[in-house]
């Protein structure tokens, strides 16, 4: 979660956690909202969607919801892409409304805008597109810019002035402390007059029994609270790993570093559980030099029955928490087509698909055949912004080229 504050001090909240809650009794609904607030933030807004459904929005920061505010400004369109260049920076403000709900509200580097919008190009929804300032998303593609597929554009507008400085601060879209948010939707669980009378009578009767000598002891049982499990927990856990495009970029840097190692050749690399294990063979180099080089470059030096190995832990941090759940079939289809085209052969094979709560996990393997480090980096870029987790990489190296496999899992509804 992040915030963006205007010059007048008005604070807008981005990347809030959203979840649709439905089909529950009032007490269960309140309990789940309280549980989510403990995990996602105590500033809350609840939107009654009718038929017992609520969209619950949580944040650790107070302020106005940016995505909903932009949607309101444009009369709540069903599908909207809004991009605004922020002044004196290389960043863009991005809001995407998809099927009436906030899909993206974020600020990011202009160079990352295309990859952020890439998953939207896999569907068949038509978007109203509005831009402000010098953003790379254009109606007609030119050098350094990109355009949305024509069949997915409902309309394309360019504003003369920035929208953010004049966005209305609507009370109806302001995050509230949890008790106020519950009260606003009549979800506060309190005691009715009848309940109070019953409680008083119970205390009176209970007191009389306490004063009776023949009273038998009563065992009080602690009420059992139902544990609420988030049906998307597997999705968020799987995508809490580092981003796969960054992992392959790190792998490429590691390979290039090993190519520059004098007197030794890396012949095999296995990457699993955020750790590289590298098999080497001597090419006129001394063992003592390799040991010194490994220590200087933060590798762990090991002698095994299979030969000399270097071990290196990945230095990447986890990616940002996903803000939406994509269509698994659409992501897989688009990824297979892109990778097969990039690698010039049937490079992708699909494995099993398993249901994980409300989402599915599909196994996918990329087969590499004598690819260069530069081409592997391009493979990684195809994974940017997608709900994909990298499980393992196994490659052999020969004459500066790599062959092997990359094991991925694709997550989505």
CATH topology name of the largest domain, in short, is: Alpha-Beta Plaits
C-alpha end-to-end distance: 23 Å
What Rg, in angstroms, do the CA atoms define?
Answer: 28 Å
How helical, in percent, are the residues?
Answer: 25-40%
* Overall domain count: 2
Which percent range describes the beta-strand content?
A: 25-35%
The CATH superfamily title of the largest domain: Ribosomal protein S6/Translation elongation factor EF1B
Q: What is the tally of helical segments?
A: 10
Helix-and-strand structural type:
alpha+beta
CATH architecture of the largest domain: 2-Layer Sandwich
Average pLDDT, all residues:
85
Taking the sheet with the most strands, its summary is:
8 strands, antiparallel
Outline: globular
Enumerate the spans where pLDDT stays under 50 for 5 or more consecutive residues. Answer: 191-196, 214-220, 224-228
CATH C-level name of the largest domain: Alpha Beta
What does this structure look like?
It is a single chain. With about 425 residues, the chain is an alpha+beta fold. It folds into 2 domains: about 1-175, no CATH class; about 235-410, Alpha-Beta Plaits. The chain has helices spanning about 25-40, 65-75, 115, 180-185, 195-210, 235-240, 245-260, 285-295, 330-345, 375-380, and strands at about 1-5, 10-15, 15-20, 45-50, 55-60, 65, 80-85, 90-100, 100-110, 125-130, 155-160, 175, 265-270, 275-280, 300-305, 305-315, 350-355, 360-370, 390-400, 400-410. α7 (about 245-260) packs antiparallel against α10 (about 375-380). The protein is globular and about 75 Å long. Residues about 190-195, about 215-220 and about 225-230 have low confidence and may be disordered.
């Amino acid at each position: 979660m992040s915030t963006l504050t205007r010059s007048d001090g008005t604070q807008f909240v981005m990347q809030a956690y959203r979840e649709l809650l439905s089909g529950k009794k009032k007490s269960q609904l309140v309990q789940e909202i309280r549980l989510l607030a403990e995990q996602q933030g105590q500033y809350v807004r609840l939107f009654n969607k009718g038929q017992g459904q609520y969209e619950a929005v949580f944040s650790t920061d107070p302020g106005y919801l940016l995505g909903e505010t932009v949607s309101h400004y444009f009369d709540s369109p069903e599908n909207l892409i809004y991009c605004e260049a922020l002044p004196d920076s290389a960043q863009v403000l991005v809001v995407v409304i998809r099927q009436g709900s906030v899909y993206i509200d974020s600020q990011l580097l202009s160079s990352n805008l295309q990859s952020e919008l890439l998953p939207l190009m896999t569907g068949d929804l038509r978007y109203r597109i509005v831009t402000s300032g010098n953003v790379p998303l254009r109606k007609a593609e030119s050098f350094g810019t990109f355009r949305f597929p024509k069949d997915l554009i409902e309309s394309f507008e360019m504003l003369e002035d920035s929208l953010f400085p004049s966005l209305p601060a609507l009370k109806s879209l302001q995050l509230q402390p949890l008790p106020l948010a519950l009260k606003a939707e009549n979800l506060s669980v309190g005691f009715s007059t009848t309940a109070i009378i019953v409680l008083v009578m119970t205390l009176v009767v209970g007191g009389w029994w306490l004063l009776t000598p023949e009273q038998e002891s009563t065992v009080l049982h602690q009420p059992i609270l139902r544990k609420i499990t988030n049906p998307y927990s597997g999705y968020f856990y799987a995508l809490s790993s580092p981003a796969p495009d960054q992992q392959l970029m790190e792998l490429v840097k590691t390979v290039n570093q090993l190519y520059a190692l004098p007197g030794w050749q890396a012949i095999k690399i296995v990457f699993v559980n955020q750790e590289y294990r590298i098999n080497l063979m001597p090419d006129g180099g001394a063992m003592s030099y390799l040991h010194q080089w490994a220590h200087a470059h933060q590798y762990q030096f090991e002698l095994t029955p299979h030969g000399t190995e270097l071990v290196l832990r990945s230095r990447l941090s986890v990616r940002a928490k996903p803000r939406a759940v994509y269509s698994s079939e659409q992501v897989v289809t688009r990824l297979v087509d892109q990778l097969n085209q990039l690698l010039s052969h049937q490079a992708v094979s699909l494995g099993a698909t398993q249901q994980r709560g409300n989402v599915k996990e599909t196994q996918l393997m990329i087969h590499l055949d004598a690819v260069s480090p530069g081409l592997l980096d391009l493979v990684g870029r195809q994974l940017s912004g997608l709900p994909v987790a990298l499980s393992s990489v196994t490659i052999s190296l020969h004459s500066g080229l790599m062959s092997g496999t990359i094991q991925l899992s694709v997550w989505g509804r």
